[in-house]
Amino acid sequence: MAQPPILSLEGVSLQQGGKWLFGGPDKDGLDLHIRPRDRLALIGRNGVGKTTLFRLIDDRIEADKGLRKVKPGTRIVVLEQEPDFSPFATLMDFALGGEHAPAEHEVEAIAGQLGIDMATPTKGASGGEKRRAAIAKALAQDPDLLLMDEPTNHLDLSAIEWLEGWLDRYKGAFVVISHDRTFLKRLTRATIWLDRGILRRKEVGFGGYEAWEEQVYAEEARAAEKLDAKLKLEAHWLERGVTARRKRNQGRLEKLWEMRAQRAAMIAPKGTAKLGLATEEEFKSKSVIVAENVSKSYGERKIIRDFTLRIQRGDRIGVVGANGAGKTTLLKLLTGELAPDTGSVEISKKLTGVMIDQQRSLLEGDVTVRQVLAEGGDWIDVRGTRKHVQGYLKEFLFDPKVVDTRVGIMSGGERSRLLLAREFARKSNLLVLDEPTNDLDLETLDLLQEVIADYEGTVLIVSHDRDFLDKTVTLTLGLDGSGTVDVVAGGYEDWEAKRRERKSPLPRAGGTGSGSGKAHKSSPTPEPAPATERASKKLSYKDQRDYELLPARIEELEGAITRGEAILADPDLYTADPQKFATITKGLENARAEKHAAEERWLELAELVEG
Predict the structure, then answer these.
(1) Residue finishing a domain among 221, 246, 264
(2) Is residue 233 part of a domain?
(3) Is the pTM of this model over 0.90?
């Protein structure tokens, strides 16, 4: 039997700027019911009102129509996308500020696992430090309902995996807005989709969202056949574009696999044939950046150690690693902004670079979209081709009517998309992207992948977005903080596979969890004999069997969930075989429920063993 909701919105309508964002006098308002243990992905394009919906749930704004009902005693906590740190001297002051401040020792416990010093002054703290402090504050409040707005922004991979592990064990409900597809696929069990003022819900995690979206758009397209041609064009150009883009991206992914195979041959040991390259001279002639035995240190710490790489025209290179591992230093070395201590970096004189950073600081609030793109005119020069500014806006998923909108009233995601539109118009043959996926919605990420794939020059990408890297780059440069740089043909998953091959499991440190944070994958602690003795004294025969066998069952279920989500990711599945779609969706729900129950059971037994 379904549990009653802990929070409900019923028939909620809201006006903003003289327009109805949700509902209205002649339109039904939003309905939303959140139950205990719900794991909800909130999906929607930038600007549709996702953050505003969070404010309605949290009661920070009041609806013009409708009801908000909350179960008494429910603690709601919001992890904001850009919290205000300015009134606070240190990160701990920020964490302990506000109406419902957590206990300091609770904040310290979570901050320790995240690797953040809460005594750090807020002024000058990095984006990653502020994000970890905000997470520590939110989680330490022990919420019944956690609302997370882009929680992985500015986090490195180890922190993202830790957060995934914490949320996997979390006993409350959460709703998450995120561009990180891997994060969403691993954690969510249902999806709420905010689209043109309508809120839809589907009891399927993000792994099945795109197939559901395609189904909805297909039904709308059939209904639109009854409309006149002009109305169809205005109402459905975006939806048709999304469907067509995903189909085109399948072809681009096949091309990406071929490029990775060629690149793997180029970096293989001597004696292996270089695919597609007739001679060594031809190989060298295509090089645009050549790093030979490069090293760089800061004080006693070696940041880059004996690094060699020849970057070719058309390479798409991803740079990954923990915050502080040296990603920015490596990027500056490769682009000539920083000189190496030893070794050499040769850069082609023909390289003309464009840098798109994560600060989005180039866009000012008082200028209009037309001024940003076309200096106030009607035409923009896009890499040598003249285009009308309104037509170019459509290529980046904007309604052409926003051309005279002030940048200051646009959402963070819309401003990021506008910056991408401007920078991709410039003539260049080297594109440097520093955390390009922050603040972007999922459709813009699809577009960004397409633009990068079609870009004729070389691309360097620093990112923690695993799915984005897997679908974009031909080479991955992985930094582990020791100064060593792995050069791997492929994306993030290929780098992870290489790391797993060479790294033996490490003992679990202190019982607090690290990495993915999943207890069932942790390596055994030292001194296993005393734990076994404790187990035999405290556990029954059935308990002992469960304690020993559940980890393998959990891994088996994880594999089944991953395979099911991969099948549901096929946008054509629902149309081609609705019965198969329904069967796999139901199987995924059962597998997730069983996995969750198994993990809780194992954790209870582990507490007895370790207690």
Answers:
(1) 221
(2) no
(3) no
